[in-house]
Design a protein that fits this description.
Blueprint: H1 3-24, H2 27-32, E1 33-38, E2 59-67, E3 74-83, E4 92-96, E5 102-105, H3 116-150
Antiparallel strand pairs: 1-2, 2-3, 3-4, 4-5
Length: 159
């Protein structure tokens, strides 16, 4: 498989991730936080063991959820799509910066076109990401609310 084909397939997988995310973010989540997306690669990414960087650079997106009404409260994570060293099964792996959770992707699930099987896997993967980000953001908002409304009387700490 050529470098250009590999890069295109990585971008197809990332596109599926964001199409699925767009579908899954509910009105309630959108009212809870402002969501920003940054698709630039700052060059600091190194392929995890067993994975390689695409020839055009890391295929990645950073998502930041900033709580509305709670200044400075945000949660961020980054996903990246990496080809595997072996290039077979799986041919690609999606990683999350805030977790050890990965999504292996078989070449047959993305070429010649995205399969329903991969759509189902991506749906579950994105659901877990959104749930974790919302939970983490909610915890940070609660800590901020307690601190702002009751001083340092919180029954828990960040540790």
């Amino acid at each position: 498989m050529s470098d250009a084909t590999t890069d295109d397939l990585c971008r197809t997988i990332l596109g599926l991730l964001w199409e699925t995310t767009d579908r899954q973010i509910s009105r309630e989540i959108a009212h809870l936080a402002d969501i920003s997306v940054d698709t630039t690669d700052d060059g600091s990414h190194v392929a995890p063991e067993g994975l390689v960087q695409p020839s055009s650079g890391t295929i990645t997106t950073r998502v930041v959820a900033t709580a509305r009404g709670h200044e400075g409260v945000e949660e961020s994570m980054r996903v990246a799509v990496w080809p595997t060293v072996s290039g077979d099964d799986p041919a690609f792996v999606v990683t999350r910066s805030d977790s050890d959770r990965t999504l292996p992707v078989a070449l047959a699930d993305v070429r010649p076109e995205v399969t329903d099987h991969l759509r189902g896997q991506v749906n579950d993967f994105i659901a877990a990401i959104i749930a974790q980000m919302v939970a983490d953001l909610d915890v940070k908002m609660q800590r901020t609310y307690i601190h702002e409304s009751q001083g340092d009387l919180a029954e828990y700490t960040e540790d």
